[in-house]
Amino acid sequence: MSFGSRWVFISLFVGMSLTGHSLCNQVVLLDTTSVLGELGWKTYPINGWDAITEMDEHNRPIHTFQVCNVMEPLQNNWLRSNWISRQAAQKVYVELRFTLRDCNSIPWVSGTCKETFNLLYHETDEAHSVKFKAAQYTKIDTIAADESFTQMDLGDRILKLNTEVREVGPISKKGFYLAFQDIGACIALVSVRVYYKKCPFTLRNLASFPDTVPRMDSSSLVEVRGACIDHAEERDTPKLFCGADGDWLVPLGRCVCSVGYEEIDGSCVACRPGFYKAYAGNIKCSKCPPHSFSYGEGSFICRCEKGFFRAEKDPPTMACT
After folding, report:
1. CATH of 202-304, one of 1.10.510.10, 3.90.1210.10, 3.20.20.70, 2.60.40.1770
2. Reaction(s) catalyzed by this protein (predicted)?
């Protein structure tokens, strides 16, 4: 006898909007909330997990996977994702959002009802269509709910949505599958998001630093050398260190604006006509000394007006006489 069906949960999801995350230090490999068509995930056995798609208040699909065979012993229901390319990741994060029914709130169940499920993965270099083999999958963790819901919550339309994040790695092959094993719980898997972290492209001290993926070892930093922006040059070698959480740390060195250019809002901008800058550095352009001029942009010296002169040994700051 199967206690659960789509109607155990689905009334809670109608009208609910699941907005996705967007963080500059995350590269999303999978987000089920952004998939418009069918997910095409596999279930083993075929009558275990149910794939349910409903529309939210913005007419966007909510893909859920549900199972609730709590009356029957020895449950072993598997749900497998499609193949997920790891891209540049050495370690990925799996974020699950789900609801789980409190076994004590279900009448007439004894030891057959569970309140956990298992999260697993399997690395491969390419997608394959061979027969599913549970033994190939490595367990990541047993997932439990911080809050489980009851029959009263169903009646009051209260959705107790749990969010759990697990790290997976090191990953060395080109991609992987995720799997979810039910052993007798009443679950609705509402969304799955897989991502890895990066230190995003940034500008610091007039130097640019590219997207950088952290090392697998969370205690080890990646040293990255920056490249001076246009019209800037190194004063000390610019460096940043990429941390495990995608944060740039320990800035060292700097670039300075070249002759004829001054720093404005993080860029090196050419001196205006009538101004000059004779030396590289983070100083402002100066107005031409008396009886001298610069007609073009980016001048490093001002030339004397007709009838006025400056000795060869005079500095550029000296007025023409």
Report:
1. 2.60.40.1770
2. L-tyrosyl-[protein] + ATP = O-phospho-L-tyrosyl-[protein] + ADP + H(+)
The model's pLDDT over 120-169, given as tens digits with 9 standing for 90+, comes to 999 999 888 778 899 999 999 999 988 876 655 554 455 678 999 999 98
Radius of gyration of the chain (CA): 31
Give dist(CA 189, CA 13) in Å, integer.
Answer: 11
Question: What is the rounded distance in angstroms from the CA atom of residue 148 to the CA atom of residue 109?
Answer: 16
Residue span(s) of the chain under CATH 2.60.40.1770 come to 202-304
CB 189 within 8 A of CB 64: yes
Contact 271, 294 (CB under 8 A): yes
pTM for this model (two decimals): 0.82
Task: Please give the distance of CA 111 from its chain centroid, rounded to a whole number.
Answer: 40
Q: What is the mean pLDDT of residues 200-205?
A: 95
CATH 2.60.120.260: which residues of the chain? 6-197
Superfamily of chain region 6-197: Galactose-binding domain-like (2.60.120.260)
Contact in structure between 3 and 107 (CB atoms under 8 Å): no
* Encoded tokens for 49: 């997990």
Spatial contact of 84 and 175, defined as CB atoms under 8 Å apart? yes
